[in-house]
Write a structure and sequence with these properties.
The complex is a heterodimer of chains A (115) and B (113). Chain A has no helices and 11 strands. Chain A is mainly β and 115 residues long. In chain A, the strands form 2 sheets. In chain A, strands 2, 4, 5, 6, 9, 10 and 11 form a 7-stranded mixed beta sheet that branches. A 4-stranded antiparallel beta sheet of chain A has the order 1-3-8-7, with no helix packed on it. Chain B is an all-beta fold and 113 residues long. In chain B, strands 2, 4, 5, 9, 10 and 11 form a 6-stranded mixed beta sheet that branches. Chain B has a 5-stranded antiparallel beta sheet with strand order 1-3-8-7-6, with no helix packed on it. Classes of the chains: A mainly beta (115), B mainly beta (113). Chains A and B meet through β4, β5, β9 and β10 of A and β5 and β10 of B.
Chain lengths: 115, 113
């Protein structure tokens, strides 16, 4: 299967600072990338859908100014958590797919802790 | 809003027992996928079902897609401790002018040796 890499795998930041998480498709070009958030012992909640070269589409209830998503190339999407607060602490997971209706490959996730 | 409900939410069984996990929705999906996730890792795809009524087998795991493509089930035969994990169904749907992969609520399985 194709490989999707997330970086960093773990990050601890101070409240009020911003954190950037990268999602890279290593061996394929991804026209679409998805960002999910997962709280302990819960399922994945879709935050936004990112298409290369266009603005991300955010799910209802997700603040676009707080969770900045950039998909500038076919192999890289970034999620920036701005002015992080302890309640933003969570497991963030990205997935990438070549085209619509093809298999989505998942990154290994990023554990964000805001102190 | 596309909602996928999984049941049970948690299942603790003895090694060797059989189990079935259900994934239900009132919405129709173009395909449905089952994933397994280990703590601290991303989900790993087990199977994709596309056709209504489709049945797929993966060793001791049997997956079925409902005739109306609204529900699915995962049956595990003779469960082993290595099957322990979080099982997630996910439906592919056209929502708000784009295809999205929506995850179910998850089933946490514990297989006791």
């Amino acid at each position: 299967g194709a490989v999707v890499s997330q970086h960093p795998s773990r990050v601890i930041c101070k409240s009020g600072t911003s954190v950037k998480i990268e999602c890279r498709s290593l061996d394929f070009q991804a026209t679409t990338m998805f960002w999910y958030r997962q709280f302990p012992k819960q399922s994945l909640m879709l935050m936004a859908t990112s298409n290369e070269g266009s603005k991300a589409t955010y799910e209802q209830g997700v603040e676009k100014d707080k969770f900045l998503i950039n998909h500038a190339s076919l192999t890289l999407s970034t999620l920036t958590v701005t002015s992080a607060h302890p309640e933003d602490s969570s497991f963030y997971i990205c997935s990438a797919r070549r085209t619509v209706n093809t298999e989505a490959f998942f990154g290994q996730g990023t554990r964000l802790t805001v102190v | 809003t596309q909602l996928l409900e999984q049941s049970p939410q948690f299942l603790s069984i003895q090694e060797g027992e059989n189990l079935t996990v259900y994934c239900n929705s009132s919405s129709v999906f173009s395909s449905l996928q089952w994933y397994r996730q280990e703590p601290g890792e991303g989900p790993v795809l087990l199977v994709t079902v596309v056709t209504g009524g489709e049945v797929k087998k993966l060793k001791r795991l049997t997956f079925q897609f409902g005739d109306a493509r609204k529900d699915s089930s995962l049956h595990i035969t003779a469960a082993q401790p290595g099957d322990t994990g979080l099982y997630l169904c996910a439906g592919e749907a056209w929502v708000d002018s784009s295809y999205k992969l929506i995850f179910g609520s998850g089933t946490r399985l514990l297989v006791r040796p």
